[in-house]
Amino acid sequence: MRVLVTGATSLIGVHTVTGLLDGGHDVVVLQRSASGLDGVTEVRGSITDRASVDEAMDGVDGVIHLAAMVSPVGSWDDFESINVGGSTIVHAAARDAGVSRFVYVSSPSVAHGGESISGDGAAPADPEHTRGHYSTSKAMAELQMLAASDDQMPVVAIRPHLVIGPGDTQLIGRIIDRAQSGRMPLIGSGLALVDTTWVDNAADALIAALNAAPSVGGRAFVVSNGEPRTVHELIARITDAVGIEWSPRNIPARVAIAGGAAAEAAWERTGRDGEPPMTAFGAEQLSTAHWFDQRETRDALGWTPRISLAEGWARLAEHHRSA
């Protein structure tokens, strides 16, 4: 199968491309900068540029659409243009090119309104109650993608939950940076259970979804390792793996959420570079449970995680020892 992967330079994108190549697929990648990946056909361009997308789509049988604006802060116009508008362009180009299956990479945050999630499945995306521009834009795009799913081009939405692994700059990178500078507090009790997904498992799930698309089109699935751990243990495992001594101070959840909202507003109002020390969404994620029942996902996709968290922590420690 000839497969287009957008956003192939991301952590999960690199592993997805590697998995596709290992499976004997012909891979095309589309991103703005050089991918550095061997064995692929590379197209440089933006998902908001129809000409670039059409070039990448030539002869493609399946699409895994990963490219997105992922940031805790930023203008709504940018999130909407890339995450909603860009996804619409990629989907339209795929349909016009006769693509037979389409995997939209979403996020569990599209159905998260701030309350705890304990053992649920993939609730419908709900942009009216999401937290932050990223989640709202991804929810809007997911609804559009799934509504357009049909027998001609079935669309599957996959929501990987907190993808981690060596080289992760989203969760692991932020925790390391803040722990090293003494700015990684424990929000609330630290006992909220959360799911994570080792990156190899997330990539396997995307490829499984591509294969299963004809039978599961129009549906959304949350993907995780299915090994929920407390927030305290998660941060402790990460800092221990990289050799950082973490002695957190506790901050009440309400205080952290309010402070995060104020910081977000200040960053957006002043257009400051970088990230605020905390966001409301981040504080909520660190203080509320969010873990998911994986039985339906595994049955529908014919997929199970091959890397346990225990093996993942060992791999993370080895990566940092050899870095």
Architecture blueprint of SSEs:
Blueprint: E1 2-6, H1 11-22, E2 26-31, E3 41-44, H2 50-57, E4 62-65, H3 76-96, E5 101-105, E6 117-120, H4 132-147, E7 155-160, E8 163-164, H5 172-180, E9 186-187, E10 193-194, E11 197-198, H6 199-216, E12 220-223, E13 229-230, H7 231-241, E14 250-251, H8 253-270, H9 280-285, E15 290-292, H10 295-301, H11 309-322
Parallel strand pairs: 1-2, 1-4, 2-3, 4-5, 5-7, 6-15, 7-12, 8-11, 9-14
Antiparallel strand pairs: 10-13
Helix pairs in contact: 1-6, 2-3, 3-4, 7-11
Based on the coordinates given, report the CATH architecture of the domain at 2-161 and 198-224 and 293-306. Answer: 3-Layer(aba) Sandwich
Q: Give the spatial strand order of the biggest sheet.
A: 3-2-1-4-5-7-12
CATH homologous superfamily of the domain at 2-161 and 198-224 and 293-306, by name?
NAD(P)-binding Rossmann-like Domain
Overall residue-averaged pLDDT value: 92
Percent strand: 15-25%
DSSP helix fraction: 40-55%
The SSE string, one letter per element, is EHEEHEHEEHEEHEEEHEEHEHHEHH
Major sheet, described briefly?
A: 7 strands, parallel
Low-confidence stretches: none
CATH topology of the domain at 2-161 and 198-224 and 293-306: Rossmann fold
- CATH class type of the domain at 2-161 and 198-224 and 293-306: Alpha Beta
